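Job type: complex structure
Entries:
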Amino acid sequence: MTDGAGLSDRELRTWRTFLGVATVLNQQVEQQLKDTAGLSHPQYEVLARLSNAPDGELRMTELAGIALTSKSGLSYQVAQLEKAGLVQRRPCATDERGIVAVLTEAGWAKLRESAPNHLALVRSAFVESLSANEFAALTAAVDALGTHLGLTGETVTALRVQS
Amino acid sequence: MTDGAGLSDRELRTWRTFLGVATVLNQQVEQQLKDTAGLSHPQYEVLARLSNAPDGELRMTELAGIALTSKSGLSYQVAQLEKAGLVQRRPCATDERGIVAVLTEAGWAKLRESAPNHLALVRSAFVESLSANEFAALTAAVDALGTHLGLTGETVTALRVQS
DNA sequence: GAATGATTGTTCAAATTCGAACGACCGGCT
DNA sequence: AGCCGGTCGTTCGAATTTGAACAATCATTC
């Protein structure tokens, strides 16, 4: 049974569930980060991305691309993180226009402190809701979607919290 | 290879891809709705949910629950839609506190006009990125996730645009 | 080496989001 | 009838997001 656009009920239902699941997971992650670390999800994302980069530093534009946020949005969040002392800005050596954001020692510490709780939540709410087969199938599906949407490997690279 | 929380690289990568895919899909949908219909995604959501309800009307709280938004967020969006003439508010007959939001004729028209494009985008960016098997597996996975996250059938029910 | 078009990052206004506080009302109880 | 904990929807302020505009710098071309 399809409607005008040829989308079946089942397809539409999957789409809606997909959106709903993403929304609720985001809400839960947001909530937990706020409660246990005083960070928003975007802020955690910035810290995590930086921690994954060589020397814990990245150009603003690279960071914006990877974190899937707009340039102005990133400016704002990095300003917040700088106020909190978790990130520092310094001029880029090779490009007079550029700014590199660097994790401070406090930034590393915050990440080491908050990552375990965060990852445990991801595990319990996301990974462990699925059987091994389901999880593998989900991986294949989102990989295919990511490819079609032009998500780069960079965007998606696993984040390793160094200690 | 796992980190402190016991989340493997592969699991983390799947999580990141899942978030990235959801983000990009949302951005594309948002963009298209804005361009072709002058609606935000939340606004479209409200119209679609109403269209799916008997008589095109729902109590505010029901609508907020289904649309996965906060009460105050819904108040704001319904106010915008009312300004645009797509939705009307009227008091609830059986509960003096209650407000029911109703689709106006213009609201029905807007939805009939914008749904085909929207659904075509969902089809091309979401459904058609996957093989039939992948799509079925994704459906099973998000259903399982939705169940574990407590998403009700209501929240997720397929939306039929009536004509 | 000057000119030109693109890129970098910030700033601004406008729109949107959330949670807390609020007044109004419901329903059950006495 | 009167009380009382709970629910309904709105409003408020604060935080955040977005795109457009901007000055500064780059890089390519002439």
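Summary: Residues 9-37 of chain B form the longest helix (29 residues). Chain B has one domain: 9-156.
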